[in-house]
């Protein structure tokens, strides 16, 4: 985990962190959502590029954001061995690589239960970084935690 933390620190410059990250999904909005209800919008990520996004939660308590060619699992309240602390991971849009486009940092704490009901719950910091690819017009996984999985969805937004 120390290696991942050092890599994240190296990738995110002090200048990028000194600016307020753009936030489109937060706990106050998400806690009001009913299952299958969606938050939709569009985010200006720079360079005249605006990406549509959709955030939703299933009736089982799993959910995530669909943006920039990826569906990213960022909400988990369904206790199937792993949940996220407060159920929602942070979504921070910051220009990590200084190319003029907002990249996505997903972070938070994962709670992992053991094999039996008597096993202690383990906590682990989760960090995944998705860099915007100008040529492909999509986000690319650059630092990916296996608990924050991302897939290319079959259904396109809008």
From TrEMBL:
Domain of life: Bacteria
Protein's UniProt name: Uncharacterized protein
Biological source species: Psychrosphaera saromensis
